[in-house]
Amino acid sequence: MYFPLGSASVRIRALIRSSPVKKFVSLALGLTLASLAQLAVAAPPLLSPQELQARLSDPNVRVIDIREPQLYAASHIPGSVSAHYGQWRGPSTNPGELPHLPKLTALVQSLGLTPTTHAVVVSTGADTTDFGASARVYWTLKILGLKELSVLNGGVKAWTDAKLPVNDRVPTIAASTFQPKLDTSQIVTTEEVAKRIKSGDSTLIDARPSAFFQGETKAPAAKAAGTLPGAVNVTFDKWFAPGTSVFVSADQARQIAASNKIDPAKETISFCNTGHWAATNWFAMSEVLGQKNVKLYAASMVEWSQDNNLPMANAPSRGQQLLQDAKGWVNKVLN
Q: Residue 3: what pLDDT?
């Protein structure tokens, strides 16, 4: 049967206006808009204890407790899984080295992680140095391909201070089959750092305390004291509310960045001794401030200092170096 186009249009409009169809169309449109809104909201890099508690019932959220196993066994956030910080680090000769991909793959699979998991990293919250552990694990998960990532701001300390529940039950987690591939856009190697120093087209940010930056002391695994040529010193502890391990707001972070020679227009390389303190600076610039092209030099000064042919700034004299080595030996013997 033939219907003129105008007649068909009138019939369709009349059908949509009918009560059952109108309700169905409205419901479908509402669900579509809600789904789009959910997709548009990415996981925030920092969660307060209350914000995390509100998400614990979401099966897509995986809370990863990176504290020592005995602390996790005593009590932890309900539903959280244990993967202590040492599992995410390199060998004792340089803990900053990124573990080999097969090891990291086995670890994330054992935690049931997939590219769509919202992973929330939780450390002790004991002090500002402790935050670097959460930031380093967050960075590792990001370069493995996870997109939805958060850190519990203030760690377990903030959670318990808020009088939120804990228990000692270990959840049963089904392993995933996730096969991560490294995203090298946020990683920089020693060879690449050497090229950047020669070209001068990157901002090098040393996250260590001033004594390390000035060459007055060094990490035990480092061969020599000093810093990278051309580096500026932005210590990792600038990003926290005074006297706490709580990361500042995004507005406060912008003020800190503006006063510390951080140029968002240039590629930025964050480093320290072993990629721990530097992970905090990377997290602040890349995740909280949203700065593009921020890289973490994971192996940092411990690896750099092993090669005598690589340049070093603020290097101590031979006599000063011998004195530092003697102090290090005495401290090792006494401790």
A: 40
